[in-house]
Predict the 3D structure of the following.
Amino acid sequence: MSRINFGAFLAPHHPIGEHPMLQYQRDLDLVEHLDRLGYNEFWCGEHHSTGWEMIASPEMFLAAAGQRSHRIKLGTGVISLPYHHPYNVAQRMVQLDHMTDGRAIFGSGPGALPSDAYTLGIDPMTQRDRQDEAIGVIKRLMKGEDRFDHESEWFTLKNAALQLLPLQEDMEFVVASMISPSGMTLAGKYGAGALSIGSMSTAGLQSLPLQWSFAKDSAEKHGKSVDRSNWRIVMNFHIAETREQAREEAKHGLMKWHNEYTVSTLMRPGAEIFDSPDEAIDGMAFGDNAAIVIGTPDDLVDSIRKMYELTGGFGTVIGFVHDWCTPEQNFRSWDRVARYVVPEINGYLKAYRKSQQDVIENREVFDRAGEAVTSKIMENEKAVKALAEEANAGSAMQSPNAPDLNKMNN
């Protein structure tokens, strides 16, 4: 298993009832926390409705996050391209890249919420084609192509060029993918990375083995190439010291999220209300086809390895940021992943364990070294006397293999 990166995805999904200003601040605190812990990426989305999803401008949020972080890469997850003139999107992403010292990742999608498209008067049947068209134009602009015109039924460019290019020589483009082939096909067409969000559902998990083939086939068709290291898989988890603790911390918020957001707000087909927190967590995290990991670092390590085997390999695990528990419990969950899951998955501890085992298995060699030291001590009368006095005082530093100096002096 190749080494993989770790990141976080903030939709966000914040329950209605808290002060929005404080929710924004807590989200920025989380970016700062993840940066300190060594996470590789942070993503946030664009939404304009539902009440739960309150970030309207991912570029604006990430610019603020860039001022409170140092090394973590910052991705738009995603900008809904049909909602914007592509020239403005390109300009904002270039500015974000400069403001974050070249840490911006451009993630795009067609728009996830029908209520957003309806408000903007956009026909859902046009959204994916518009995303495709916009990506092509934005790529031309960011590459610094000479001035060009572009006529479209939804936007126009005249003698267009960017006066400032990205700080990065080649800003990474990433396309969001749900369950249908469209996202992965688009990623292949442009040789872009992919962000698989559908993996958080049972249906999405079942579709993953086929997803990469859509990207690969599309890349071959358009003379591009795709790399699994640029494939990001979103996973849903909450980690604590024990499964019981993780369960107790997450179950009430998990039920609220499912009942009030997934069922009552989105009215997702097939989703049904849970009657109790225990029923919710049993059904969503501990069933045969569970898409959520509630448990210990070892449980998440096992799930990531299974996901890697299921997909055939990917480059980054992206944890979905939720409000199932208190902010303090949530921060501790991310901390445990960084401390225990990341090094285990990436093999950082193998040499430590090998070194420890080597010492255990070669005990006689190191005992022999101790005997050599003792032998030299015994040749010096003053040293023998000093050690005997320490032994009489009950020194805790005396080696269990050292000779009884009191007997030797008698």
